[in-house]
Design goal:
This protein is an alpha+beta fold. Helices cover 12% and strands 30% of the residues. The longest helix has 14 residues. The structure holds succinic acid (SIN) and fe (ii) ion. This is DNA oxidative demethylase AlkB.
């Protein structure tokens, strides 16, 4: 697929109060980010986590940074240790940290200090059902979400599961930032359509940056 906007400067699309799409914001960093993902996955491999309800997630996941999102039989949690390896998650690569900092600032959250980055890998058919990101103790911090590779349909609703959904195509290099009034808005990813992307072949990656620990008081 020819991306007519490949060379375009990034542009912004308002999504909801406190939420914005930074179109193509990660386009120029993408190759570096993808190389870093390969290195991270060689230490902490992608795996299909099992929800407390016994459902195996279709999205494959790993993490980097001081804390990583994971599941156990009791629920969802942030852990400093990868339960698969027993080691700490790989550190947040410099390219991840600087892209996230720039995106958060562009979206109006200059003080965002992520301590967790969840890496999602979608194969054709993989999806993420409608959910809220609510496992983080400090909801003043926004979510920064980076799309790489194949496009996917992102659903973005409101505070209630039944609120009307916006459906937006997220393409390679797009970054969505939500916080403030929309921090707890429901969102999800519709089943990935198969295709081919020159940098990721048959899949889509998503980086989700979060502040998952308590901010240290200065
Ligand atoms: C998420 O909600 O954690 C991921 C969203 C995405 O893959 O774009
Ligand atoms: Fe989410």
């Amino acid at each position: 697929m020819l991306d007519l906007y490949a060379d375009a400067e990034p542009w912004q699309e308002p999504l909801a109060p406190g939420a914005v799409i930074l179109r193509r914001f990660a386009f120029s960093a993408a190759q570096r980010l993808l190389q870093d993902i390969v290195a991270i996955a060689s230490q902490s491999p992608f795996r299909h986590m099992v929800t407390p309800g016994g459902y195996t997630m279709s999205v494959a996941m790993t993490n980097c940074g001081p804390l990583g999102w994971t599941t156990d039989q009791h629920g969802y949690l942030y852990s400093p240790v990868d339960p698969l390896t027993g080691e700490r998650w790989p550190p947040l690569p410099e390219a991840f940290a600087s892209l996230c900092q720039q995106a958060a600032t562009a979206a109006g959250y200059p003080d965002f200090m992520p301590d967790a980055c969840l890496i999602n890998r979608y194969a054709p058919g993989a999806k993420l059902s409608l959910h809220q990101d609510k496992d983080e103790p400090d909801l003043r911090a926004p979510i920064v979400s980076v799309s790489l590779g194949l496009p996917a349909v992102f659903q973005f609703g409101g505070l209630h599961r039944n609120d009307p959904l916006k459906r937006l195509l997220l393409e390679h290099g797009d970054v969505v930032v939500w916080g403030g009034e929309s921090r707890l808005f429901y969102h999800g990813i519709q089943p990935l359509k198969s295709g081919f992307h020159p940098l990721t072949a048959d899949c889509r990656y998503n980086l989700t940056f979060r502040q998952a620990g308590k901010k240290e008081l200065k």
